[in-house]
Every structure is written in structure tokens, then in C-alpha cells.
Amino acid sequence: MAYKGKFKPHNPFKYVGDPTNIIYRSLWELRFMRYLDSHPNVTQWASEEITIPYFSPVDKKIHRYFPDFWVRTKSSDGSINTMIIEIKPDIQTRLPVKKEKSNRRYINEVKTFGVNTAKWKAAEQFCLDRKWQFKVLTEKELGLDKF
Q: Which one of 38, 44, 47, 116 has the fewest CB atoms closer than 10 angstroms to its CB?
């Protein structure tokens, strides 16, 4: 998951923002960008273009969350749907299991889970206020859990 690069869309008119500066931070994000760029029901999309404030339970401060994707789709019945999508490893979407002995890794996993949960609650409220949807996609939803 440590891959990073620039994505060049085949359909730059669908991208909201600068289509010459689309950055992916993982191969999962790259795969999803390709899907958004090529799927006929996706009318518009953006990557890290929205800012959502959230309160971190770790340092008790307000931070800014930049969700991975903003997506607008058109259904076969003509309805328009807007959603925010976050791409995360499945392991980061669940509370870590406590081992017999707490170590740094476990503590970091708990902190990561706490921050992610705070971000996602803020994103859910942000979307609710706009009648949008919020989804977290993992390797399972992206069909990458078989590798």
C-alpha cells in the first residue's frame, strides 16, 4: 500500500479540480480512480478536494480531514447521488484486539482507529447535512482481498 504517483485521467472533463494534478497514495486509490474515470454512471469526481473539520480524541484538537474521494453518479432512473468515499485497509476499520501485553504497535493501532472513527463521524454528519452518503471502502469492497 506504500505506492504513490500521479493519475492521468482518460476523461478529464469528469474530474472536478485540476486534472493534471491528481495524486494517488496507494494502489487501491489508483484502482478506484481508474474505476471512477471509466464508469459511465460517474458524472463527476474529485480526490482530496473537500475539507471536513474533526475533533481528534488523541490530542484533543480540531484538525482538517481530506476524504479520499467526492463522487457524483447518475442512476438509470435519472436520480443524482453524491457521496464521499474513504479508502482504508480493513484492519484500520476495526478496533484492534488487545494482546496480553500492550506494546507500541497496539497503542498506535488504537490511536489510528480513534482518529479514523472521529474523521468518519465528522464526514457522516457533513454528508447528512447535504443529503449525501459516506462510505469507507476496504480491499474487500474493491475486490483486492484475494491477492
A: 38
| Residue 131 annotated to the active site | no
Domain ranges of the chain: 5-137
| Active-site residue identified among 37, 68, 86, 109 | 68
Is CATH 3.40.1350 what the domain over 5-137 is classified as, yes or no? yes
Distance, in Å, from the CA atom of 21 to the CA atom of 6, rounded to the nearest integer, reads: 7
With vertex at residue 71, the alpha carbon angle to CA 66 and CA 77, rounded to the nearest 5 degrees, is 155
Positive or negative, the CA dihedral 17, 48, 44, 130 is: negative
Three-state SS at 43:
strand
Among the listed residues 37, 86, 88, 119, the single catalytic one is 88
Q: What is the pLDDT along the chain (147 residues), one digit of tens a residue?
A: 458 999 999 999 999 999 999 999 999 999 999 999 999 999 999 999 999 999 999 999 999 999 999 999 999 999 999 999 999 999 889 988 887 776 888 888 899 999 999 999 999 999 999 999 999 999 888 876 543
The question of whether 60 is a catalytic residue gets the answer no
Assess whether 88 carries a catalytic annotation.
yes
